[in-house]
C-alpha cells in the first residue's frame, strides 16, 4: 500500500481534512521538544490551524530527545500524519501538516540547538512528561544524582536534557543579540511555567551568571494547561486507518473530540493569534491546572491502578460498571472542595463531561498506559488533594483507597495473579520499599499518621478482597 505523503494527499477520500495552505511557503516558528502522540494530537493541531488561517509563521520542528521512532515514521511521510477523532461510532480524520521535520537530539544535538536559536523561532514548547524535568521533588532543584543532569551541568556542547538544550540555545541567541524565545511547558505539572523557569535558570547559572540573569529578566515561561486524551496508537489502529484512507499512515494518532489549551498570557515575542484558535489566554492558569490535575488526572490514576488490578484493560470498562462510576464520583466529591475553580468553570458540568469522556469506548485507553510513572504523577494528582483534606479535617476515604491501589500496583501482579512490569523511573526503589511509610518516602511525601493509617487499612482490604472488592465496599 502507498505511504501517506505530499503526493498521496490527492488520493485521500474527500471527507478527510488536509492542509489548505502552501506547506513549502510555511516558515518554522516553533521547536517542540518531545514529539510524542500527545503533541501531534494537541499543540500541532493548533499550529496547523494557525497555518490554515494564513499566518505561515508557525510550522514546527519536532525534536525527539532519545528515540528515532517518530522521525522514522514521519520522515517518509513528508511530516504528514492523521489525527483520528473517535467518538463512539463516529470518526473524523484531519491530516496535519504543521510538522516540517523531526530531529533526533542524540544524533545531531547541534541541529537542535541551531533550530531553537534561529531568529524565526519564537516558541519552544515541551511535552517531555513529568520525569523529563529532572526535578528533585523532595529536595527541590535539579536531580543532583542524575547522570544526564550532571553531564549538562558540566558542559552544554551536546546537551542530554531538555533543560540543557534550552540553556544552550538561549546562550546562542544572547550571543547573537536575538531576543529569547518563549519556552512553554505543556506537561501535567502544577506551576509548570515556574518549574521550567527555575530549572532553566539553575542550569544557566552553573555555566554563566550573566546568562542566567538575562534569562531571568528577558525570558518568558508561561504556565499552560493542556487537555486531550490521546491513547497510544496500536497496530490495529494503523490498519483500520489505512483501510479508511487507502494509504498507509504509520504516524497517526487517535484521540477524542475534546481539546483544551489554557496559556498564561506572558510571551517574550511573537505568537500565533492564540485566541482566534480557541486557546484561552489568562493571567492565572493555576486554578485550571488544579481542577484538571485533581479531577481528570486524579481519577485517571485511580482508575488505572484499581481497574488495572481488577483486570480492566481499558478506562471505559471501569466506568462502565455502576460501582466504578460511583467510586469516581466519590473521589470527585472529595477533590472538589479543595479547588478554587476559575469563575468560567462550571465544575458540575465539567464532571459530567469528564465521565462522558472516560466512557468513550472507541478510545481504548489502556489502564497500564496511565499507570506508568506513578511516582511522578501521584503527588500532584492524589497526594496534594489528600493532604489538603486532612488539613481541613475532612474525610479521605476514596483518595486513601486510590493511593493504596498505587502501592498495591508496585507488587507487579493483578488480583488474578497475572504478572506485569511496573514502568517507573524509580521502579527499583519502589519494588524494595515495604509498606506505606517506605513507599511514601520513596516519592518524597510525608503524611500525618491518620492519613497513613487510612491508606494502610485500604491496602489490607486490597490484599484481602482485591480491587473489585474494595471498590464495592467503598461505594456500598
Ligand atoms: C493520563 C493523561 O496517562 C496519563 O497519565 O492521565 O495523559 C491524560 O490522558 C491527559 O492529561 C488528558 O489531557
From TrEMBL:
Organism: Sphingomonas aliaeris
Oxidoreductase as UniProt keyword: yes
Residue stretches making up the Mannitol dehydrogenase N-terminal domain: 29-273
Keywords of the record: Oxidoreductase
Name of the molecule in the record: Mannitol dehydrogenase family protein
Tree of life domain: Bacteria
Location of the Mannitol dehydrogenase C-terminal domain: 285-432
Pfam entry (one): Mannitol_dh_C
GO MF annotation terms: oxidoreductase activity, acting on the CH-OH group of donors, NAD or NADP as acceptor
Amino acid at each position: 500500500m502507498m505511504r501517506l505523503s505530499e503526493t498521496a494527499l490527492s488520493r485521500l477520500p474527500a471527507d478527510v481534512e488536509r492542509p489548505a495552505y502552501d506547506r513549502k511557503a510555511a516558515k518554522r516558528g516553533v521547536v517542540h521538544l518531545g514529539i510524542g502522540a500527545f503533541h501531534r494530537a494537541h499543540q500541532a493541531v493548533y499550529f496547523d490551524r494557525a497555518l490554515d488561517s494564513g499566518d505561515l509563521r508557525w510550522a514546527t520542528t519536532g525534536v525527539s530527545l532519545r528515540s528515532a521512532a517518530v522521525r522514522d515514521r514521519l520522515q517518509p511521510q513528508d511530516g504528514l500524519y492523521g489525527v483520528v477523532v473517535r467518538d463512539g461510532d463516529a470518526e473524523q480524520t484531519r491530516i496535519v501538516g504543521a510538522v516540517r521535520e523531526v530531529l533526533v537530539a542524540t544524533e545531531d544535538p547541534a541541529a537542535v540547538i541551531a533550530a531553537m536559536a534561529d531568529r524565526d523561532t519564537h516558541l519552544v514548547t515541551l511535552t517531555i512528561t513529568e520525569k523529563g524535568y529532572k526535578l528533585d521533588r523532595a529536595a527541590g532543584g535539579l536531580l543532583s544524582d542524575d547522570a544526564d543532569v550532571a553531564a549538562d551541568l558540566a558542559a552544554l556542547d551536546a546537551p542530554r536534557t531538555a533543560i540543557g538544550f534550552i540553556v544552550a540555545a538561549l546562550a546562542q541567541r544572547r550571543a547573537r543579540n536575538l531576543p529569547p524565545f518563549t519556552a512553554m511547558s505543556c506537561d501535567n505539572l502544577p506551576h509548570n511555567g515556574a518549574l521550567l523557569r527555575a530549572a532553566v535558570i539553575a542550569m544557566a547559572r552553573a555555566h554563566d551568571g550573566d546568562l542566567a540573569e538575562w534569562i531571568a529578566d528577558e525570558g518568558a515561561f508561561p504556565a499552560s494547561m493542556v487537555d486531550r486524551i490521546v491513547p497510544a496508537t496500536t497496530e490495529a489502529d494503523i490498519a483500520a486507518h489505512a483501510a479508511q484512507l487507502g494509504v498507509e499512515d504509520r504516524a497517526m494518532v487517535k484521540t477524542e473530540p475534546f481539546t483544551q489549551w489554557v496559556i498564561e498570557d506572558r510571551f517574550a515575542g511573537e505568537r500565533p493569534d492564540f485566541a482566534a484558535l480557541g486557546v484561552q489566554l489568562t493571567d492565572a492558569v493555576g486554578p485550571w491546572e488544579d481542577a484538571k490535575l485533581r479531577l481528570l488526572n486524579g481519577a485517571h490514576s485511580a482508575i488505572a491502578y484499581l481497574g488495572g488490578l481488577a483486570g480492566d484493560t481499558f478506562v471505559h470498562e471501569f466506568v462502565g460498571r455502576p460501582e466504578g462510576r460511583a467510586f469516581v464520583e466519590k473521589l470527585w466529591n472529595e477533590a472538589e472542595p479543595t479547588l478554587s475553580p476559575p469563575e468560567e468553570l462550571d465544575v458540575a458540568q465539567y464532571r459530567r463531561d469528564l465521565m462522558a469522556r472516560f466512557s468513550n469506548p472507541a478510545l481504548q485507553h489502556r489502564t497500564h498506559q496511565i499507570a506508568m510513572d506513578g511516582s511522578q504523577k501521584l503527588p500532584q494528582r492524589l497526594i496534594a488533594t489528600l493532604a489538603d483534606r486532612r488539613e481541613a479535617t475532612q474525610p479521605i476515604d476514596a483518595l486513601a483507597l486510590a493511593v493504596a491501589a498505587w502501592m498495591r500496583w508496585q507488587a507487579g501482579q493483578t488480583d488474578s495473579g497475572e504478572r506485569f512490569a511496573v514502568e517507573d523511573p524509580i521502579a527499583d526503589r519502589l519494588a524494595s520499599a515495604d509498606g506505606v511509610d517506605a513507599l511514601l518516602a520513596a516519592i518524597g511525601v510525608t503524611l500525618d499518621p491518620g492519613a497513613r493509617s487510612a491508606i494502610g487499612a485500604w491496602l489490607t482490604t486490597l490484599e484481602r478482597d482485591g480491587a473489585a472488592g474494595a471498590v464495592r465496599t467503598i461505594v456500598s
